[in-house]
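Catalogue entry: protein

Sequence with per-residue tokens
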Amino acid sequence: MIAESEAARWREAPDSQMVCPCAGVDKAAVKAAIAQGAFTAPLVKAMTGVGRDFGCGQRRECEADLEILVALYAESPC
């Protein structure tokens, strides 16, 4: 379960809000990956590159934000 404050922060954020600055991935790119069928964080990560820069010190933050976005916008196909 995600905190309502975190959900609200991402719900209200513009599509240009960066999710993973190191990979250059914004909220719009995450939503596009979800719209193309990525319904889990690992699938979105594979499609967008969120959190895949091993030199990044913010990886945990990016991945946490990705989990929130997936919870907000993705629907399981089952």
